[in-house]
């Protein structure tokens, strides 16, 4: 079989450019096309798989176009709410065998961090998530933090745990952060950072910290390429790279 043809939407962005370089460096993949804001997607340069790293407002339409062309999609753009996912599932259900992966994070360490946090969540009374990114990031909390909090909340519910303890009654400035699936999430935006997250789990007399740091965007590329190579084996909509790695 020939090389898998890959097109990248958002090719001039930081992540998109890194994906293009990674695809070009892979012997079994061929970079078929680069697309950016304002480009006509058309036939997607004849791609077998599209990697989509754009912005939350544009991503649903980009992915819908790919699905309508029968092209598999690996999506790294955040902002996929339950409503957007439901619409996408309806679109994909009308196709034959198209696979779409929505991945909040492609770093293998980050995927493992989320799995470890979900595993530990049922054993600790308290848990909070702190995510740290560069100040050019447009959304907060990050997709990784939202996914982590969702997994933690599900694990706590399965373990029969109630709300995390918090006696705060007065917080006019929102110092206690956001609540995602009942889990406090704090977002830091600081020049010099790339993508970092820690999960703090507390019980009487102890704390467990699970942290992952991406210092360079190349850390996401093994996961992106693994997704590109496997997406055709997973028809339908999949949320989370862990399902491709046997962790979900």
Describe this structure in words.
By secondary structure, the chain is an alpha/beta fold. The protein is 29% helix and 26% strand. The strands form 2 sheets. A 6-stranded parallel beta sheet has the order 2-1-3-4-5-11, with helices on both faces. Helix 2 (59-68) runs parallel beside helix 3 and helix 4 runs parallel beside helix 5 (143-158). The longest helix is centred in the middle third of the chain and has 16 residues, at 143-158. It is elongated.
Work out the strand percent.
25-35%
Instruction: Kindly provide the radius of gyration, computed on alpha-carbon positions and rounded to a whole number of angstroms.
Output: 19 Å
Question: Overall mean pLDDT score?
Answer: 95
Weakly predicted, low-confidence segments: none
| SS content category | alpha/beta
Number of strands: 11
Strand order of the largest sheet: 2-1-3-4-5-11
Main sheet? 6 strands, parallel
- H/E element order: EHEEHEHEHEHEEEEHE
Estimate the helix proportion, in percent. Answer: 25-40%
Number of helices: 6
What overall geometry do the principal axes of the alpha carbons give? elongated
How far do the termini sit from each other?
Answer: 30 Å
Per-chain topology:
Elements: E1 4-9, H1 14-24, E2 29-35, E3 49-52, H2 59-68, E4 72-75, H3 82-93, E5 99-102, H4 108-121, E6 126-133, H5 143-158, E7 178-180, E8 183-189, E9 195-203, E10 206-214, H6 221-230, E11 236-239
Parallel strand pairs: 1-2, 1-3, 3-4, 4-5, 5-11, 6-8
Antiparallel strand pairs: 6-9, 7-8, 9-10
Helix pairs in contact: 2-3, 4-5
